[in-house]
User: Fold this.
Amino acid sequence: MTTLDRPVPSPRPPAATERATRKQWLAVAAVALGVFVVMTSEVLPVGLLTPIGSELGVSAGTAGLMVTVPGLVAALSAPLAVVFTRKVDRRLVLIGLAVLVAGANVGAALAPGFALLLAARVLVGLSIGAFWAVAGGIALRLVPERDVPRATAAIYGGIGAATVLGVPAGTLIGDHFGWRAAMWALAGLAVVAMAAIAVLVPKLPSNTTVSFASLPRMVRDNKGVRIGLALTFFIVTGHFIAYTFISPILQANGIAAGQVSGLLLAFGAAALVATVASGSLIGTRLRGTLAALGVAMAFGMALMAFAVGDLFSATAVLVLWGVGYGLVSPALQTWYMNSVRPGEVEIATSLNTVMFNLSIAAGSFAGGYVVDATAPTGVLWIGALLLIPVLVIAIAARKRAVNA
Assistant:
Protein backbone atom coordinates (compact mmCIF):
# COMPACT_ATOMS: atom_id res chain seq x y z
CA MET A 1 0.00 0.00 0.00
CA THR A 2 1.43 3.40 -1.00
CA THR A 3 1.24 6.67 0.90
CA LEU A 4 -1.64 8.01 -1.18
CA ASP A 5 -3.57 4.77 -0.85
CA ARG A 6 -3.57 4.50 2.89
CA PRO A 7 -6.32 5.99 5.10
CA VAL A 8 -6.05 9.68 5.95
CA PRO A 9 -4.41 10.46 9.32
CA SER A 10 -6.40 12.41 11.87
CA PRO A 11 -5.10 15.65 13.37
CA ARG A 12 -5.77 14.19 16.81
CA PRO A 13 -4.48 10.84 18.09
CA PRO A 14 -7.56 8.71 18.91
CA ALA A 15 -7.21 5.06 19.80
CA ALA A 16 -7.05 2.79 16.76
CA THR A 17 -10.29 1.11 17.78
CA GLU A 18 -12.22 4.31 18.54
CA ARG A 19 -15.46 4.64 16.59
CA ALA A 20 -17.55 7.70 15.84
CA THR A 21 -20.52 8.35 18.12
CA ARG A 22 -24.09 9.05 17.05
CA LYS A 23 -23.56 12.73 17.83
CA GLN A 24 -20.49 12.85 15.61
CA TRP A 25 -22.36 11.20 12.73
CA LEU A 26 -25.17 13.75 13.11
CA ALA A 27 -22.59 16.50 12.72
CA VAL A 28 -21.35 14.78 9.56
CA ALA A 29 -24.95 14.61 8.31
CA ALA A 30 -25.44 18.34 8.92
CA VAL A 31 -22.35 19.19 6.87
CA ALA A 32 -23.53 16.77 4.17
CA LEU A 33 -26.86 18.64 4.05
CA GLY A 34 -24.94 21.88 3.56
CA VAL A 35 -23.01 20.27 0.71
CA PHE A 36 -26.30 19.10 -0.79
CA VAL A 37 -27.73 22.63 -0.75
CA VAL A 38 -24.58 24.22 -2.16
CA MET A 39 -24.21 21.65 -4.93
CA THR A 40 -27.90 21.79 -5.85
CA SER A 41 -27.61 25.57 -6.06
CA GLU A 42 -24.66 25.22 -8.40
CA VAL A 43 -26.06 22.64 -10.82
CA LEU A 44 -29.83 23.19 -10.65
CA PRO A 45 -29.76 25.34 -13.83
CA VAL A 46 -28.71 22.19 -15.73
CA GLY A 47 -32.29 20.94 -15.42
CA LEU A 48 -33.84 24.37 -15.99
CA LEU A 49 -31.85 25.69 -18.96
CA THR A 50 -34.75 25.42 -21.40
CA PRO A 51 -37.48 27.20 -19.34
CA ILE A 52 -35.09 29.88 -18.06
CA GLY A 53 -33.71 30.53 -21.53
CA SER A 54 -37.21 30.66 -23.02
CA GLU A 55 -38.58 33.09 -20.41
CA LEU A 56 -35.55 35.39 -20.40
CA GLY A 57 -34.92 35.24 -24.14
CA VAL A 58 -31.41 33.68 -24.30
CA SER A 59 -29.99 30.65 -26.15
CA ALA A 60 -29.05 27.36 -24.48
CA GLY A 61 -25.38 28.22 -24.79
CA THR A 62 -25.88 31.63 -23.16
CA ALA A 63 -28.05 30.10 -20.44
CA GLY A 64 -25.09 27.83 -19.65
CA LEU A 65 -23.39 30.92 -18.20
CA MET A 66 -25.50 30.24 -15.10
CA VAL A 67 -23.06 27.39 -14.45
CA THR A 68 -19.95 29.12 -15.82
CA VAL A 69 -20.20 32.29 -13.70
CA PRO A 70 -20.51 30.60 -10.27
CA GLY A 71 -17.62 28.32 -11.21
CA LEU A 72 -15.33 31.26 -11.92
CA VAL A 73 -16.38 33.11 -8.78
CA ALA A 74 -16.00 29.99 -6.64
CA ALA A 75 -12.47 29.48 -7.94
CA LEU A 76 -11.55 32.98 -6.74
CA SER A 77 -13.44 32.86 -3.46
CA ALA A 78 -12.04 29.54 -2.19
CA PRO A 79 -8.50 30.69 -1.32
CA LEU A 80 -9.72 34.14 -0.26
CA ALA A 81 -12.20 32.56 2.15
CA VAL A 82 -9.58 30.32 3.75
CA VAL A 83 -7.15 33.20 4.24
CA PHE A 84 -9.64 35.80 5.47
CA THR A 85 -11.45 33.39 7.84
CA ARG A 86 -8.33 31.59 9.08
CA LYS A 87 -9.00 32.71 12.67
CA VAL A 88 -12.77 32.13 12.64
CA ASP A 89 -14.51 29.07 14.06
CA ARG A 90 -15.27 26.79 11.08
CA ARG A 91 -18.80 26.14 12.34
CA LEU A 92 -19.59 29.86 12.24
CA VAL A 93 -18.15 30.10 8.72
CA LEU A 94 -20.42 27.29 7.50
CA ILE A 95 -23.47 28.91 9.11
CA GLY A 96 -22.73 32.24 7.43
CA LEU A 97 -22.28 30.57 4.05
CA ALA A 98 -25.61 28.78 4.37
CA VAL A 99 -27.24 32.18 4.90
CA LEU A 100 -25.43 33.53 1.84
CA VAL A 101 -26.61 30.70 -0.43
CA ALA A 102 -30.17 31.21 0.80
CA GLY A 103 -29.97 34.88 -0.15
CA ALA A 104 -28.45 34.02 -3.53
CA ASN A 105 -31.38 31.77 -4.41
CA VAL A 106 -33.89 34.39 -3.29
CA GLY A 107 -32.14 36.86 -5.59
CA ALA A 108 -32.33 34.39 -8.49
CA ALA A 109 -36.02 33.79 -7.86
CA LEU A 110 -36.75 37.53 -7.98
CA ALA A 111 -34.50 38.39 -10.96
CA PRO A 112 -36.52 40.10 -13.73
CA GLY A 113 -33.87 39.56 -16.41
CA PHE A 114 -30.88 37.39 -17.28
CA ALA A 115 -28.27 39.96 -16.20
CA LEU A 116 -29.66 40.18 -12.67
CA LEU A 117 -30.01 36.41 -12.58
CA LEU A 118 -26.29 36.13 -13.33
CA ALA A 119 -25.62 38.64 -10.55
CA ALA A 120 -27.43 36.35 -8.11
CA ARG A 121 -25.37 33.44 -9.43
CA VAL A 122 -22.24 35.39 -8.43
CA LEU A 123 -23.39 35.05 -4.80
CA VAL A 124 -23.88 31.32 -5.38
CA GLY A 125 -20.27 31.18 -6.55
CA LEU A 126 -19.04 32.98 -3.44
CA SER A 127 -20.82 30.51 -1.18
CA ILE A 128 -19.68 27.48 -3.18
CA GLY A 129 -16.00 28.35 -3.12
CA ALA A 130 -15.88 29.24 0.55
CA PHE A 131 -18.05 26.31 1.67
CA TRP A 132 -15.95 23.74 -0.16
CA ALA A 133 -12.68 25.19 1.06
CA VAL A 134 -13.81 24.82 4.67
CA ALA A 135 -15.99 21.70 4.50
CA GLY A 136 -13.87 19.62 2.14
CA GLY A 137 -11.54 18.24 4.79
CA ILE A 138 -13.74 18.70 7.84
CA ALA A 139 -14.27 14.95 8.33
CA LEU A 140 -10.80 14.87 9.90
CA ARG A 141 -12.13 16.96 12.77
CA LEU A 142 -15.55 15.38 13.24
CA VAL A 143 -14.82 11.64 13.57
CA PRO A 144 -12.00 9.35 14.75
CA GLU A 145 -9.28 8.24 12.33
CA ARG A 146 -10.76 4.90 11.31
CA ASP A 147 -14.05 6.54 10.27
CA VAL A 148 -12.54 9.39 8.23
CA PRO A 149 -12.93 7.64 4.81
CA ARG A 150 -16.58 6.82 5.57
CA ALA A 151 -17.27 10.33 6.87
CA THR A 152 -15.60 11.84 3.80
CA ALA A 153 -17.77 9.67 1.55
CA ALA A 154 -20.86 10.67 3.57
CA ILE A 155 -20.10 14.40 3.30
CA TYR A 156 -19.47 14.11 -0.40
CA GLY A 157 -22.65 12.06 -0.59
CA GLY A 158 -24.26 15.49 -0.53
CA ILE A 159 -23.08 15.83 -4.12
CA GLY A 160 -24.75 12.60 -5.15
CA ALA A 161 -27.86 13.57 -3.22
CA ALA A 162 -27.91 16.91 -5.04
CA THR A 163 -27.84 15.03 -8.33
CA VAL A 164 -30.33 12.32 -7.34
CA LEU A 165 -32.74 14.53 -5.43
CA GLY A 166 -31.90 18.21 -5.84
CA VAL A 167 -31.65 18.63 -9.60
CA PRO A 168 -34.51 16.23 -10.53
CA ALA A 169 -36.75 17.64 -7.79
CA GLY A 170 -35.92 21.20 -8.82
CA THR A 171 -36.58 20.31 -12.46
CA LEU A 172 -39.90 18.74 -11.49
CA ILE A 173 -40.91 21.81 -9.47
CA GLY A 174 -39.87 23.96 -12.42
CA ASP A 175 -41.97 21.89 -14.82
CA HIS A 176 -45.11 22.23 -12.67
CA PHE A 177 -44.76 25.58 -10.91
CA GLY A 178 -42.09 27.47 -12.85
CA TRP A 179 -38.33 27.73 -12.42
CA ARG A 180 -38.66 30.59 -9.91
CA ALA A 181 -40.54 28.29 -7.53
CA ALA A 182 -37.60 25.88 -7.67
CA MET A 183 -35.27 28.69 -6.57
CA TRP A 184 -37.57 29.60 -3.67
CA ALA A 185 -37.66 25.98 -2.53
CA LEU A 186 -33.88 25.82 -2.57
CA ALA A 187 -33.62 29.03 -0.54
CA GLY A 188 -35.86 27.48 2.13
CA LEU A 189 -33.72 24.35 2.23
CA ALA A 190 -30.62 26.49 2.73
CA VAL A 191 -32.21 27.90 5.88
CA VAL A 192 -32.82 24.34 7.11
CA ALA A 193 -29.15 23.51 6.47
CA MET A 194 -28.09 26.58 8.42
CA ALA A 195 -30.16 25.48 11.41
CA ALA A 196 -28.82 21.91 11.24
CA ILE A 197 -25.21 23.09 11.22
CA ALA A 198 -25.87 25.50 14.09
CA VAL A 199 -27.44 22.77 16.25
CA LEU A 200 -25.44 19.65 15.35
CA VAL A 201 -21.91 20.72 14.46
CA PRO A 202 -19.62 21.40 17.46
CA LYS A 203 -17.37 24.42 17.78
CA LEU A 204 -14.39 23.99 15.48
CA PRO A 205 -11.73 26.60 16.21
CA SER A 206 -9.55 27.16 13.17
CA ASN A 207 -6.35 25.11 13.14
CA THR A 208 -4.93 26.50 9.91
CA THR A 209 -2.18 29.07 9.47
CA VAL A 210 -2.79 29.49 5.76
CA SER A 211 -1.60 32.61 3.98
CA PHE A 212 -1.64 33.67 0.35
CA ALA A 213 2.03 32.67 0.06
CA SER A 214 1.30 29.13 1.25
CA LEU A 215 -0.92 28.39 -1.77
CA PRO A 216 1.68 28.70 -4.56
CA ARG A 217 4.30 27.21 -2.22
CA MET A 218 2.25 24.04 -1.85
CA VAL A 219 1.81 23.72 -5.61
CA ARG A 220 5.55 24.21 -6.13
CA ASP A 221 6.76 21.85 -3.39
CA ASN A 222 4.16 19.06 -3.33
CA LYS A 223 4.10 16.71 -6.33
CA GLY A 224 1.02 14.88 -5.03
CA VAL A 225 -0.95 18.15 -5.02
CA ARG A 226 0.19 18.94 -8.57
CA ILE A 227 -0.98 15.53 -9.77
CA GLY A 228 -4.27 16.06 -7.93
CA LEU A 229 -4.81 19.38 -9.71
CA ALA A 230 -4.26 17.69 -13.08
CA LEU A 231 -6.75 14.96 -12.17
CA THR A 232 -9.31 17.53 -11.09
CA PHE A 233 -8.94 19.49 -14.32
CA PHE A 234 -9.38 16.56 -16.69
CA ILE A 235 -12.23 14.90 -14.77
CA VAL A 236 -14.31 17.98 -14.02
CA THR A 237 -13.81 19.74 -17.36
CA GLY A 238 -14.62 16.53 -19.19
CA HIS A 239 -17.78 16.03 -17.17
CA PHE A 240 -19.21 19.54 -17.30
CA ILE A 241 -18.45 20.22 -20.95
CA ALA A 242 -21.06 17.54 -21.62
CA TYR A 243 -23.31 17.29 -18.54
CA THR A 244 -24.16 21.01 -18.47
CA PHE A 245 -26.08 20.42 -21.71
CA ILE A 246 -27.51 17.00 -20.91
CA SER A 247 -31.09 18.23 -21.31
CA PRO A 248 -30.70 19.43 -24.94
CA ILE A 249 -28.49 16.37 -25.64
CA LEU A 250 -31.21 14.00 -24.51
CA GLN A 251 -33.88 15.84 -26.46
CA ALA A 252 -31.66 15.79 -29.57
CA ASN A 253 -31.49 12.00 -29.14
CA GLY A 254 -35.28 11.68 -29.24
CA ILE A 255 -36.06 11.86 -25.52
CA ALA A 256 -39.18 13.85 -24.66
CA ALA A 257 -38.68 16.93 -22.49
CA GLY A 258 -41.00 15.50 -19.83
CA GLN A 259 -38.72 12.46 -19.43
CA VAL A 260 -35.55 14.43 -18.70
CA SER A 261 -36.18 14.81 -14.95
CA GLY A 262 -36.61 11.05 -14.59
CA LEU A 263 -33.34 10.41 -16.41
CA LEU A 264 -31.54 12.93 -14.24
CA LEU A 265 -32.94 11.02 -11.27
CA ALA A 266 -31.43 7.78 -12.62
CA PHE A 267 -28.06 9.50 -13.09
CA GLY A 268 -28.18 10.94 -9.59
CA ALA A 269 -29.24 7.67 -7.98
CA ALA A 270 -26.29 5.88 -9.55
CA ALA A 271 -23.94 8.68 -8.45
CA LEU A 272 -25.26 8.62 -4.89
CA VAL A 273 -24.89 4.84 -4.56
CA ALA A 274 -21.33 5.06 -5.88
CA THR A 275 -20.44 7.89 -3.49
CA VAL A 276 -21.77 6.05 -0.45
CA ALA A 277 -20.04 2.83 -1.51
CA SER A 278 -16.74 4.63 -2.09
CA GLY A 279 -15.79 4.75 1.60
CA SER A 280 -13.87 1.47 1.57
CA LEU A 281 -12.48 1.95 -1.94
CA ILE A 282 -10.93 5.37 -1.39
CA GLY A 283 -9.33 4.21 1.84
CA THR A 284 -7.44 1.28 0.28
CA ARG A 285 -7.70 1.39 -3.54
CA LEU A 286 -7.52 5.06 -4.39
CA ARG A 287 -5.66 4.83 -7.71
CA GLY A 288 -7.81 1.95 -8.91
CA THR A 289 -10.90 3.99 -8.07
CA LEU A 290 -9.61 6.93 -10.12
CA ALA A 291 -8.91 4.69 -13.11
CA ALA A 292 -12.34 3.08 -12.87
CA LEU A 293 -14.23 6.36 -12.69
CA GLY A 294 -12.36 7.68 -15.74
CA VAL A 295 -13.30 4.61 -17.79
CA ALA A 296 -16.94 4.65 -16.67
CA MET A 297 -17.46 8.34 -17.44
CA ALA A 298 -15.68 8.20 -20.82
CA PHE A 299 -17.68 5.17 -21.94
CA GLY A 300 -20.90 6.78 -20.72
CA MET A 301 -20.29 9.90 -22.78
CA ALA A 302 -19.25 7.96 -25.89
CA LEU A 303 -22.28 5.69 -25.69
CA MET A 304 -24.56 8.70 -25.19
CA ALA A 305 -23.21 10.11 -28.47
CA PHE A 306 -24.02 7.15 -30.72
CA ALA A 307 -25.98 4.45 -28.88
CA VAL A 308 -28.87 6.32 -27.26
CA GLY A 309 -32.18 6.51 -29.08
CA ASP A 310 -34.81 5.55 -26.55
CA LEU A 311 -35.60 5.81 -22.85
CA PHE A 312 -34.11 2.43 -21.92
CA SER A 313 -30.73 3.02 -23.55
CA ALA A 314 -30.56 6.57 -22.17
CA THR A 315 -31.20 5.26 -18.66
CA ALA A 316 -28.53 2.56 -18.93
CA VAL A 317 -25.90 4.97 -20.22
CA LEU A 318 -26.66 7.64 -17.61
CA VAL A 319 -26.40 5.04 -14.84
CA LEU A 320 -22.91 4.09 -16.06
CA TRP A 321 -21.90 7.74 -16.30
CA GLY A 322 -23.42 8.45 -12.89
CA VAL A 323 -21.53 5.62 -11.18
CA GLY A 324 -18.27 7.08 -12.44
CA TYR A 325 -19.12 10.62 -11.41
CA GLY A 326 -20.26 9.52 -7.96
CA LEU A 327 -16.70 8.42 -7.19
CA VAL A 328 -15.09 11.70 -8.25
CA SER A 329 -15.34 14.03 -5.26
CA PRO A 330 -14.50 11.57 -2.43
CA ALA A 331 -11.61 10.13 -4.47
CA LEU A 332 -10.14 13.54 -5.32
CA GLN A 333 -10.54 14.89 -1.80
CA THR A 334 -8.88 11.79 -0.35
CA TRP A 335 -6.00 12.20 -2.80
CA TYR A 336 -5.41 15.74 -1.53
CA MET A 337 -5.80 14.84 2.14
CA ASN A 338 -3.31 11.98 1.74
CA SER A 339 -0.83 14.29 0.00
CA VAL A 340 -0.46 16.82 2.84
CA ARG A 341 -0.07 17.08 6.58
CA PRO A 342 -3.25 17.50 8.68
CA GLY A 343 -2.64 21.23 9.26
CA GLU A 344 -2.40 21.77 5.50
CA VAL A 345 -5.69 20.13 4.54
CA GLU A 346 -7.62 23.40 4.12
CA ILE A 347 -4.85 24.78 1.89
CA ALA A 348 -5.00 21.69 -0.32
CA THR A 349 -8.80 21.73 -0.30
CA SER A 350 -8.89 25.38 -1.36
CA LEU A 351 -6.54 24.58 -4.26
CA ASN A 352 -8.79 21.69 -5.24
CA THR A 353 -11.80 23.99 -5.03
CA VAL A 354 -10.08 26.54 -7.26
CA MET A 355 -9.27 23.95 -9.91
CA PHE A 356 -12.64 22.19 -9.57
CA ASN A 357 -14.61 25.36 -10.18
CA LEU A 358 -12.31 26.72 -12.87
CA SER A 359 -12.84 23.40 -14.61
CA ILE A 360 -16.62 23.69 -14.23
CA ALA A 361 -16.45 27.15 -15.75
CA ALA A 362 -14.13 26.06 -18.56
CA GLY A 363 -16.23 23.01 -19.37
CA SER A 364 -19.60 24.76 -19.35
CA PHE A 365 -18.26 27.74 -21.34
CA ALA A 366 -16.54 25.62 -23.99
CA GLY A 367 -19.55 23.34 -24.14
CA GLY A 368 -21.86 26.31 -24.70
CA TYR A 369 -19.71 27.46 -27.61
CA VAL A 370 -19.75 23.98 -29.19
CA VAL A 371 -23.50 23.53 -28.66
CA ASP A 372 -24.35 26.87 -30.26
CA ALA A 373 -21.88 26.39 -33.13
CA THR A 374 -22.58 22.74 -34.00
CA ALA A 375 -24.91 20.29 -32.25
CA PRO A 376 -25.52 19.29 -28.62
CA THR A 377 -24.03 15.80 -29.02
CA GLY A 378 -20.65 17.17 -30.15
CA VAL A 379 -19.62 17.95 -26.57
CA LEU A 380 -19.88 14.27 -25.61
CA TRP A 381 -16.84 13.26 -27.67
CA ILE A 382 -14.77 16.13 -26.29
CA GLY A 383 -15.72 15.14 -22.74
CA ALA A 384 -14.79 11.50 -23.34
CA LEU A 385 -11.38 12.47 -24.75
CA LEU A 386 -10.64 14.62 -21.70
CA LEU A 387 -11.15 11.58 -19.44
CA ILE A 388 -8.37 9.56 -21.11
CA PRO A 389 -5.50 11.32 -19.25
CA VAL A 390 -7.13 10.33 -15.94
CA LEU A 391 -6.62 6.66 -16.77
CA VAL A 392 -3.05 7.34 -17.91
CA ILE A 393 -2.20 9.20 -14.67
CA ALA A 394 -3.72 6.46 -12.50
CA ILE A 395 -1.85 3.69 -14.34
CA ALA A 396 1.43 5.61 -14.25
CA ALA A 397 1.02 6.18 -10.52
CA ARG A 398 0.46 2.44 -9.93
CA LYS A 399 3.57 1.58 -11.93
CA ARG A 400 5.66 4.01 -9.91
CA ALA A 401 4.29 2.45 -6.73
CA VAL A 402 5.23 -1.06 -7.94
CA ASN A 403 8.73 0.03 -8.98
CA ALA A 404 9.35 1.98 -5.78
Observations:
- The chain is about 80% helix and 0% strand.
- The mean pLDDT is 82.
- The first helix runs from residue 22 to 43.
- The two ends are 11 Å apart (CA to CA).
